[in-house]
Structures are given as structure tokens and as C-alpha cells.
Write a sequence for this structure.
């Protein structure tokens, strides 16, 4: 990622946090292994580890295979290329047993997302859960390194989590270069335009406007309890950002297009890939953007004020 000089110390701090997060993931054992149920007091000890506490600052989602006692286990992290490929996994609860009780989150019990390490191949699907706590998803997998994400909310008092695990698909692979930033992308007959600035360390308001054959789309259909669903992944480590839309269908104020507004906070400067799922004419389509998150206006003002105090 391209990183500004002014945020060098901030990014270095993030590296420390992410390194600690990786250590936490490794500490709970290799992906695919079955952990024993925790003894009394072990879970409390884990909540004191970086990224495991329920309070305070935590790294972005998707960087850890385990958090708050929950663990994302792919049954087979080594896959063959196929379309569709069947990927099965479990979410292990703090007691070591597969979680079977989930709260509904955007109309679904769990959101399963896969993307290649080069940020291509994005897919957002909704797997099926059996009575034993095993989820099964159908995705199209081509050769290369992938990252899988499980976005879910355990029923009860525990907060929503996004856990991530690596998935490898055998075969020849050449990384796809990250597309250059663009304000407009085309998906079939549709054109989606992005307005708003991505700001590091501050709330960013982004509006995506949908048009079909040059005419604004004013009859978007609800998808996942909204007129659009947006996922953001950071180039390099694929940190997963929660992006929240304004309003919801049927609330009396949110219009079904052409604009869909989201709010998120980019944790650092650099490149991100945005994936907008929207539904129209009974079909869900995905528009993909590359954005560069820059320093927020507050950061610029703070730096200018500091320079003035020192006579610069």
C-alpha cells in the first residue's frame, strides 16, 4: 500500500496490533484442527490478549481466525478449482463446540465472503447450516490464495464478529494487478458512480448512484434489509470493514435509488477495494471500486496547527 509520511507512526502501530492479532490466531492452533473445550478460567485469560477483549480498540475484522473465544474452522482449507466448489466450515463457541444459535444479521444468520489475496474473485453468499453446526457454501474457486470471511452475530450478549481464514486452491496462478481508482464502473447495462472521499481514521460518507442505460434507477429492490450491501477490503492484509447503509426499505424516508449512502471508517491510508451488491429486476449484481484512503481533514488541520506553533 502507498502510505503517507505523516501517518508512518500510525501505520507502524497498526503493524504491531496486526502482528499481535496474528499471534492470537496462531495460538489457538492450526486451521482445521479441533480444539479441546476450555478449562475454567482459560477464556478469561484469552480476553486479556490483544484483539480478544470485548471493550476498547480492536483491529479491523477478518484479520483473526479467533476472537472473543469464537473460532472459524474451515473443514478443508486446501481446495480444488471448481464451479461450484463446496466449502464447509464451523464456528466454534467458547466452550469448544460448534455454534448453532445465531442472531439474524441483515436478513441472514451468517454472511460468507471469499476473495483472492489480489482482491479479485469476490463472492458474497449465504451458506446452509445443518443441525450439527456445520455450514456449507457454494462458491466458484480458481487457482490461487484466497481469504474466507465469516460475518456473524452469536445469539446472546456477544457482539457481531468477522473472522477470517486462508483458503488455498491448487493450480497455476498469476496475481491480478489491483485496478486503478475510478469513480465509475460498469456492470452489464448498469453504471455505478461513487461520490465521497475515503478518509483514514475518520468517518467517511460514500454514496453510490445506480443508473441503467443512462437513466437513474429509482426502483432498487431490497437486498439484505437494505437497497445495497457494501463490503470493503484493504489491499495487502484484506482487513474487512463493516460498512453501514443509511436507512432501510420501508422506513418512510429511504428512497429505492438511485443513490445508496454508506458510512465507514478506513483505519489507515492506502488502497481499498469496495464491493457493492445491489438488486434490480430480480438479479443481484456486484459493482467493484478501488479507492485510496487519504488523511482526514482533521489530521491535516492538526498538522497545520502544530506547524504554526513551531513557526513553520
Amino acid at each position: 500500500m502507498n502510505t503517507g509520511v505523516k501517518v508512518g507512526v500510525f501505520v507502524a502501530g497498526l503493524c504491531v496490533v496486526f502482528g499481535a492479532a496474528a499471534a492470537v490466531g496462531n495460538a489457538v492452533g492450526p486451521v482445521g484442527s479441533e480444539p479441546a473445550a476450555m478449562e475454567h478460567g482459560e477464556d478469561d485469560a484469552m480476553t486479556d490478549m490483544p484483539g480478544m477483549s470485548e471493550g476498547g480498540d480492536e483491529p479491523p475484522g477478518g484479520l483473526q481466525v479467533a476472537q472473543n473465544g469464537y473460532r472459524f474452522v474451515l473443514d478443508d482449507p486446501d481446495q480444488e478449482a471448481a464451479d461450484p466448489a463446496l466449502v464447509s466450515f464451523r464456528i466454534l463457541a467458547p466452550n469448544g463446540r460448534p455454534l448453532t444459535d445465531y442472531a439474524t444479521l441483515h436478513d441472514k444468520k451468517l454472511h460468507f465472503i471469499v476473495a483472492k489475496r489480489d482482491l479479485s474473485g469476490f463472492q458474497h453468499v449465504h451458506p446452509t447450516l445443518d443441525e450439527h453446526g456445520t455450514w456449507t457454501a457454494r462458491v466458484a474457486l480458481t487457482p490461487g490464495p484466497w481469504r474466507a470471511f465469516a460475518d456473524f452475530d452469536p445469539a446472546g450478549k456477544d457482539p457481531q464478529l468477522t473472522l477470517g481464514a486462508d483458503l488455498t486452491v491448487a493450480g497455476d496462478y498469476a496475481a491480478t494487478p489491483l485496478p486503478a481508482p475510478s469513480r465509475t464502473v460498469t456492470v452489464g447495462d448498469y453504471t455505478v458512480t461513487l461520490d465521497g472521499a475515503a478518509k483514514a481514521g475518520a468517518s467517511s460518507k460514500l454514496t453510490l448512484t445506480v443508473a441503467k442505460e443512462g437513466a437513474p434507477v429509482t426502483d432498487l429492490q431490497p437486498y439484505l434489509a437494505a437497497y445495497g450491501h457494501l463490503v470493503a477490503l484493504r489491499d495487502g492484509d484484506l482487513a474487512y470493514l463493516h460498512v453501514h447503509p443509511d436507512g432501510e426499505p420501508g422506513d418512510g424516508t429511504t428512497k429505492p435509488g438511485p443513490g445508496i449512502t454508506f458510512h465507514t471508517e478506513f483505519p489507515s491510508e492506502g488502497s481499498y477495494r469496495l464491493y457493492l451488491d445491489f438488486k434490480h429486476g430480480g438479479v443481484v449484481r456486484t459493482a467493484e471500486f478501488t479507492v485510496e484512503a487519504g488523511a482526514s481533514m482533521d489530521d491535516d488541520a492538526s498538522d497545520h496547527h502544530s506547524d504554526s506553533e513551531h513557526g513553520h
Remarks:
- The CA atoms of residues 181 and 291 lie 5 Å apart.
- The chain has a mean pLDDT of 83.
- The radius of gyration is 20 Å.
- The chain has two domains: 5-169, 184-299.
